[in-house]
Design brief:
The protein is an alpha/beta fold. Helix content is 29%, strand content 17%. The strands form seven sheets. The chain has a six-stranded mixed sheet, with helices on both faces. The protein has a five-stranded parallel sheet with strand order 4-3-2-1-10. It has a five-stranded mixed sheet with strand order 18-26-25-20-21. Helix 2 (24-35) packs across helix 15 (332-348), helix 16 packs across helix 21 (543-551) and helix 17 (428-436) crosses helix 21. Bound molecules: beta-D-glucopyranose.
């Protein structure tokens, strides 16, 4: 039976929108049938994507859609305009090929979840998946079937503003996160009308931008590339991600959008990726500025031949592909393959068969808000809690609420949010007022924004602290300080925030700092002055309730850092999975404060003006209770190549509250043909424990999990000695050893 007929019958039988998942063979057949009818112009149209605004939806735009000018439109128009554009594409173009509408649904659509770095701090793939699913439902209801997420660039440099969008520094955690996001967006089948195609980006190496400056070049040795930067992308392919986006950077001198090694050899030949590759925004024509292509025509040739199927925004394909094909510089087969990838995704999404969607507008729902609140709650990391200052007691008479982030609905959403509404956002101030009653909350922001350096509001803030029993300061970075093109050379709390903390601390009341930021910041003085610190990233729509609950013990912090926090910007890049040097410094080798007389120090790998250790290590985070790690044991002292081993430890809750510990497994390959990191994360588990409860947590490790890329670029496990830790973070834990034979 012909495919369209099946879908047609199904539609009427069920009397509803059906998602008929076609087999690969059926889809391929339809793709070939359609491709054989297409002109070269129509093919090039499919390979072109625009964010050209449809508002106002002009006659010119309608006409261009009728001509098949674009295979995809993104971040454009409202639901009604998208529906109308789709109607024109489906019913008024020669072949009725639907438009694929894309959008940057990065951490939520209408309901905004924590920034991706915050989601990674949950160490909870289930909530990450639920957030993705919720975002997909909302976006698809408004006609979006493709998101440019997950962004899975390994980021080890907090100067880089896009670290906010990333899953942090670790390839294992990032891989788990990548797969969870892909599952969330795509659901169980792309044919489900609520599924949206995911896009693994930015391929590749973008997070290693030199000096943390966005768009900057990266030089990454192939071993490091494969072992660190590419791993989450491979995991996304394994999870069935529908598309890839290239990156802006030149990788080892070759811009990603013209990088055959990445796009053909690795992605297609090695990983067998069957999906669609889109360029980043104008990254094809930017190859001229990189000094890699002579002009737009040359750039189009490079990109098409390297394997970029669709060009985002710039028009090098539209302007030049036709003549490049006639001159033989780009083969007809290259064009056909690109169009195959594009049509295939459109068929898989059911775009040809679904009824033309009516325009709808989504709103937040109790369910979407519950997911957002859970994600926000789990993302918050308790960095300090002297004398159990937190949770605050319900009996606290009055609370001073201070700081520029206490009531900043837009800023708490963070970077890359498009479709939110202010009225949905619940700020900490609003929530605390509701929880405690207006009269008990003394609000004095102190500063208008995070960058405000005026002291005009300090007196009122100090006065509030004087009159209250405790002060909570909401500090951090406003929305536009992180994200794309928002690199910073300083990592301090901007504006006069540190001075505000100093002033408020003079009141002598307990001080809690809640920091909302898109990156790890350095805030040493504030950390010394505050009795407790909650690091809340940009927590999204439900940041207020999540934080209020954590402050008052209705929830217990369980977030853990997905990235190392430096003491000073000069330590960057600092990450836990570094190699040893021939002269490792011991953690106790303190820096010599500048200005003190010189004294001889050891010739070890350290700084003379700051401690060598991080401020807070990867994996770190406290709870309102405490956990012990005991009795590490291995199922055997050695394992044969190809076999597996179980490593267990007893984790107990020794405090008086229920809490969730994130138990982490690290290994170290002691001697290898390529020196290996001092520790590498290989597993983790969130474990909820009641007071006094003890649980044995076990991890199975296969010898293939220990593999690394050797000098011949082969993924190998080498025999020898391995150290292993079950640990609360990358610097502590209980240790054992085993041998791979
Ligand atoms: C960003 C991408 C994004 C695209 C479309 C680019 O500037 O690098 O991550 O998906 O714009 O908005």
């Amino acid at each position: 039976m012909a495919w369209p007929y099946c879908a047609f019958v199904g539609f009427f039988l069920l009397g509803a929108v059906v998602s008929t998942a076609a087999t690969d063979a059926e889809v391929d057949q339809r793709v070939e049938a359609l491709l054989s009818r297409m002109t070269l112009d129509e093919k090039i149209g499919q390979m072109s994507q625009s964010d050209r605004l449809m508002t106002p939806f002009s006659d010119e735009v309608r006409q261009l859609i009728r001509q098949g000018r674009w295979g995809s439109l993104f971040n454009a128009g409202n639901p009604a305009e998208r529906a109308e554009a789709q109607r024109i594409a489906r019913t008024e173009t020669r072949l009725g090929i639907p438009i694929l509408f894309g959008r940057d649904v990065i951490h939520g659509y209408r309901t905004i979840f924590p920034i991706p770095l915050g989601q990674a701090a949950t160490w909870d793939p289930d909530i990450v998946e639920q957030a993705g699913r919720t975002a997909a439902r909302e976006a698809s209801a408004e006609g979006i079937r493709w998101t440019f997420a997950p962004m899975i660039d390994i980021a080890r440099d907090p100067r880089w503003g896009r670290i906010a969008e990333s899953p942090g520094e670790d390839p294992y955690l990032a891989s788990i996160f990548a797969a969870a996001m892909v599952r969330g967006f795509q659901g169980t089948s792309l044919a489900d009308p609520s599924a949206i195609a995911a896009c693994a980006k930015h391929f590749a190496g973008y997070g290693a931008a030199e000096a943390g400056r966005d768009y900057n070049s990266t030089w990454i040795a192939e071993i490091l590339l494969r072992d660190v930067y590419l791993r989450p992308f491979h995991a996304a392919v394994d999870a069935g991600v529908a598309s890839f986006m290239t990156s802006f950077n030149a990788l080892n001198g070759v811009p990603s959008s013209g990088n055959e090694f990445l796009l053909r050899r690795i992605l297609r030949d090695e990983w067998k990726f069957p999906g669609l590759v889109v360029s980043d925004y104008q990254s094809i024509t930017e190859m001229t500025l990189h000094g890699y292509a002579a002009d737009a025509r040359d750039a189009a040739r490079e990109a098409a031949n390297a394997g970029v199927d669709m060009e985002m925004v710039s028009t090098a394909y539209f302007d030049h592909l036709k003549s490049l094909v006639s001159s033989g510089a780009v083969a007809g087969k290259t064009i056909d393959d690109a169009v195959r990838h594009i049509l295939r995704l459109k068929f898989l999404l059911g775009l040809f068969d679904a009824p033309i969607p009516a325009a709808q507008t989504v709103t937040v729902t109790p369910e979407s808000l519950a997911v957002a609140q859970k994600a926000a709650t789990e993302s918050v990391v308790l960095l300090k809690n002297d004398q159990n200052l937190l949770p605050l007691s319900d009996t606290v008479g009055s609370l001073a609420v201070i700081g520029p982030m206490a009531d900043a609905p837009v800023d708490q959403l963070g970077t890359w949010t498009i479709d939110w509404r202010t009225e949905d956002v619940r700020t900490p101030l609003a929530e605390l007022r509701q929880m405690l009653g207006n009269g008990r909350v003394l609000y004095a922001p102190g500063l208008k924004t995070s960058r405000d350096s005026s002291h005009d509001g300090f007196a009122a803030a100090r006065d509030a602290a004087d009159r209250a029993d405790a002060a909570v300061l909401f500090l951090g970075e406003e929305q536009i300080l992180s994200g794309e093109a928002r690199s910073r050379a300083f990592l301090n709390l901007p504006g006069a925030q540190e001075e505000l903390v100093e002033e408020v601390a003079k009141a002598g009341k307990p001080v809690v700092a809640v920091i909302m930021a898109g990156r790890p910041l350095t805030f040493h003085d504030t950390a010394a002055r505050a009795g407790a610190i909650l690091y809340a990233w940009h927590p999204g729509t439900m940041g207020g309730p999540a934080i209020a609950d954590l402050l008052f013990g209705r929830a217990v912090p369980s977030g853990r850092l997905p990235v190392t926090f430096p003491r000073a910007v000069g330590q960057v890049p600092i990450y836990y999975a570094h190699l040893n040097t021939g002269r490792p410094a011991s953690a106790s080798e303190l820096g010599i404060p500048m200005g003190t007389p010189a004294k001889p120090t050891g010739y070890t790998s350290k700084y003379i003006d700051v401690d060598v250790t991080p401020e807070y290590p990867f994996g770190y985070g406290l709870s309102y209770t405490n956990f012990t790690y005991e009795n590490l044991r291995l199922s055997a002292p050695s394992v044969a190549m190809g076999g597996s081993l179980t490593i267990s430890a007893d984790i107990a809750n020794r405090g008086r509250r229920e809490g969730t510990e994130v138990v982490q497994l690290y290994i170290h390959d002691v001697v290898a043909s390529v020196a290996q990191p001092v520790r590498l994360l290989k597993g983790f588990r969130r474990v909820a424990l009641k007071p006094g409860e003890m649980r044995t947590v076990s991890f199975a490790i296969r010898t293939e999990d220990l593999a690394f890329y050797n000098q011949q670029m082969k993924l190998v496990t080498e025999p020898g000695r391995f150290e292993v830790w079950i640990a609360p973070d990358a610097e502590h834990g209980i240790k054992g050893e085993f041998v791979v034979k």
